[in-house]
Each structure stands twice: as C-alpha cells, then as structure tokens.
Amino acid sequence: MSDTDTERRRKQRIAEGLEEPVREANALARKLGLDPFPVTYWIIDYDEMNELIAYGGFQERYPHWRWGMSYDRQQKQNQFLGGKAFEIVNNDNPSHAFLQESNALADQKAVITHVEAHADFFKNNQWFGLFADDPNAAAMLANHADTIESYMDDPEVDREAVEEWIDHVLCLEDCIDQHRPFSTIDGDQPHRELEDIADRLDSLGLSEEVRRQVFDEEWLESQRPEEESGSFPAEPDPDVLSFLRRHGMAYDEESGRAVEYEDWQRETLELLRREAYYFAPQKMTKVMNEGWAAYWESMMMGEEGFAEADEFIHYADHQAQVLNSPGFNPYKLGKELWEYIENATNRREVAETLLRVEGVTWRNFHDRVDLDEVRAALEPDAMLDRLGAATLDELDPDDPRVDAEALESARAGDVDVDRYPWKVLSYEGLCERHYSLVKPQHRGFLKRLTQSDLERIARYMFDDARYASVEEALANVDRCAGWNRMREIRESHNDVTFLDEFLSQEFVEQNHYFTYEFTHTTRDYRATSTAVEDVKKKLMLQFTNFGKPTVVVEDANYNNRNELLLSHQYNGVMLDQRQARQVLERVFELWGRPVNLKTIVKQLDDHDVEVARRRDREPVPEEVGVLVRYDGDSISSEELPWEAVEHLAATDVDYDTKPDEWLA
User: Fold this and answer.
1) For residue 658, what pLDDT is reported?
2) Ranges for the SpoVR-like C-terminal domain (predicted)?
3) Which residues pair with 622 in a beta bridge?
4) Cβ(201)–Cβ(219) below 8 Å
5) Are residues 483 and 338 in the same domain?
6) Cis bond leading into 94, ω under 30°?
C-alpha cells in the first residue's frame, strides 16, 4: 500500500470518528435557535493547516510572495511561540471548515461547535449579504488564481511586472466602500476625463523652442474648457480601487508618460477589488463573529456537555488559550459583550414584568421587591437539570418546554437522553435550562438594577397589563428574551455599531476596561480613563475602516492638470508619514500622473512640551493641514491653510459606520 493510500485511510478513520459530533453539534445549534449554512468538514495535516492559514482559509489563491511570508510566519509562531491552530472556516454556502488531524478529540469538538456558530453568523448577518446572497467563494478565488497565473505564464507579459502590479493594488485593498453592496464595473474601456492640452503637446515630440514660440502659456490656458475648473468626482469617492479601475492609467517608465492599462492590469485590479469586498465583512465583524462563536461553543461544550467528563479539562485549557491570548482579543471582548447583552435584556424583561405588579412603581421598587427572592424564583425547573432516561416519565409532552416528538422517540429507546439530554427539550426549554441571570458567574447582575434604570424603563412602558403578585408576574417572564435579542443584533450590526450601541459604563467597570496613553509629563504610558466614552472611542478607532486610515478620492483633476488628490478623513489619529509617502509612490503607478494627499498632522513644539511637563500637564498640539505630493521623481510636502482641510476634520470622531438607508 502506498504512503498516499495510507494517509487517505488514516484521515478517513478520523473523519468517521467525527461524524457523530458533527451531526449532533448541528442539531444542537438548531435547537438553540441558530440557523447555520451547511458545513463541509475536511481533515488536514499540520502543513496543510499552515498553508490554509497563509492563504486566508482557502486552498487556492493567486501567485504572490505574501502567501509565502504568511506561511513562514505561521510556522515560526507554532514552533517558537507555542501557537496552535484550532480552526479555519470560510464564508461560503456550504461553508468549509478544516480540522487538523493531530488535534485531540476535545479540540475537534470545540472547533465543530465554534464553526456551527460561525456558519450561522455568515448566513444571517446583513453585512455578509452585501457581497453575495449565495457565495461560492472557493470557486471564485480559484478562478482568480487561474486568471492571474495565466498572465504570469504569458510570454508577452513580464511575470515580475504582474507581481509588482499586485503589490501596487494591495496597498489600497482596504480603500473600498465596505458599506455598499459589491457591484462590478461595467465596460472594459476606462472613461477618460478631459486631458490637459500640455500633455497632448508632449505626445507630438515638439522641441521646447517651437512650443515656446507657437504655444505660449496664455494660449494653453485659453484652450482649457470652462468645466475643467470643477472637481471630479462631484462627491468624494471612498472606493478608490473602483475609481482607479475606471479612470486610472499606468505609468510607463520607458516613455515617462501615463498610458492606458493593459488588459491584464485592468482585470487584475478588478479581481483584487472583488476579493477585498469579499473579505470586508469578516474584517468588519471580527469582534461580533468571534464572540458569537465563542459564546455558543462554550454553551454547547461546557453547559450541554459536548465535552465529556474525561475531555473537559483539556477543553477548558483550549478555551483558556483562546480567550486569554495576549494583546487585543476579539474573542474575549466579543464573548463578554454578547453575555452582557443577554443579561441586560433578561434583566430588563424582569424589571418590565415586575413593574406591572399592582402597587409596584419605579420609585418603590426596591422596597416592594426582594431581588434575591426574584433570582431564586427564576431558577430553572429542577426537572430540566435531571434529564435522562430514568426521568422521561416526568416529562409532559404538552409542556411547551418539551419536544413532544423527540420525547416519544426517547421513550422508544431511539434517543440517547443520558448523553444528549437537550434532545427532548424545545427552544423554550433550553432557554429556561440556560437562563443567564441565575448562573453563578452572573449572580450579582440582577441586583445591579438601579433606581435610574427603573425610571428609564418605566418611562417607555405603555402596557397596562397588571399582575396581582410578584409570583404571578415572574411566572410570565420570557426566559427567551436574551437569546431572541442576541439574534436580532446578530442580523444587523457590524463591530463599530455593536460597540457604539451596547458598550456601557457598567460593562466597562465590570470587565475592567480602561484607556492608556503616552504622557509627555512622565515620558511613559499611563492608564488615563475608565469612562465609557473614552474606552468606546479607543475601541471603535480600531474597527472603523478595519482600523486603517479612511482615504477617499477628492479630485481627479487637481489644479486642473489631471493630478489625483486623495483626502485623509482625519479622526484624531495622524497618518504614518513614512507609510503615506510609500503608498503615494505606488498609487502613482496606478494613476500614471502626480498624486497628492491632503491630511492633518499634530505639531508639538519642544519648548511647549517642556513647559507643560514642568507644570505637570499634557501639552496641547496644534493641528495643521498638509499636502504631500509625489510626481514620479520626488516627494514634496507643504502646509495648507486650515480652510483647505477643515472639511476633513471630524468634530469628535467621525466613525462613518452606517449607510444612509440603514439609518432610515
């Protein structure tokens, strides 16, 4: 038997051992109210996993050095830093997930439950729907790879030129309009704007003497049409890649002039733009998506016993590695915020119900209601905690918390209730079984209900329904309110709107979030604030435009000479000037003519810093406008009057997160 056959048989045995966890994880996810894409699972080895991670989760990508760099980084992380690859899943229908064969069974189960939640998020979050209602990403990326490889293999095209062109485009891969649905660019020929007369004369090869005698500057100025004085585009265009695809020209070093894109250049730019739109939702929802998957994975593996007794310690170590990895951790922040939303929704539901009790108002609530007794009354029915084959007779098929059909099968011996007790419960039964406000880790959440919270809730209550007692009211509490609200939020938000709406002072204090800054007075980093406004601003800046600077096309006929003017939408964070210059050099290759960039920088005088330090306060920098220009040979920079950049400065922080129709 060949090594290939042996490898195939080994993977087949692993796959067969995972058939039951895959089947039951999907069934449990649906019981819990999730609606995932179908998932195809693949068993791969260590090297294949590293290759997939390097390729962004796909088996085929276009030829480029970046993938080799990513692969090398991943291998070194595993080798020297103890990193471990747990899962890869991509947004596709069906989704594709990859399991590393060397991982323990507890790891595989954790990945499977995590993936089912991801597949639910892919299917139901509106931002993923902006690219395609029915994605087939693997096929799309494979076709892109074939197309670009064909250009590299074309004897008429320089392979290095293709790779360099890709480098130019990738420096702008996040300069798209991620808040709008993806659309292709119609037409193969770019639309040429009015060309400067001086450029046309250059193409005639006239000597300088003839040009001075026949075409003086006054005549040249008179030939420019009046409409050229207007800016183009009429409004700033955030999809820089699309604009360049339609209006850009390539710089030809040999002639020193801008020339029309070759077919391979135009097509490569469009393929990379398409990929940028495909990956945009994943970047826009990293905290939400990973937190969502971590939440439901924990629910299934820990609370529903998907990790068996002899696997639980291993799983706990697995989750600790994920949730406690160093640096900013979207898994941890996302899971904590989803749990907070669940608890806050359930607490509000309880408060609204109790405020309908006769004689209870927001003013006397804490005198009339004992929240310790309320919490005890909300404990799940004991029957839900002792589910098993021996207790099936205690279940009533007419109870809305019971899945009558599954109960009948279980009584017939067709369902292993001891292993999977959730099978005989309905969604309502699982909501009560896992009601968040009575869990030990959330023991104090209900008691943090303040007088101001109650007043705010009562202000918007218009239902006159009343209960005679607290006990009667608690019997009508909707224990599914938290999960229902979580699914609503999952459908419509991205990370920025998620943090903007649900990050609260209570959350910041309970989870110990704070901001830190470099202070000139102490010349080191110091914790500066625990105020929710400051924490929110810091976090949201990491996610607005994927944490990258927002740059738009402001004018494609700047100074009436077909120069490109880009504008940086300044939000209080300066551009890295060295990187900005490098980007302009690459954009020049895509525009073919000089490129300009407007931005705002902060300036601090050394004397002011020293004076402020002596007075134990922070210096206040001056914000000034700057224009950086690259003409193909050199970079220049000049200060601009404030009026020229005032429109770029946000009054506070301009997050620019939601399309107009989403706000309506």
Assistant:
1) 43
2) 549-600
3) 603
4) no
5) yes
6) yes
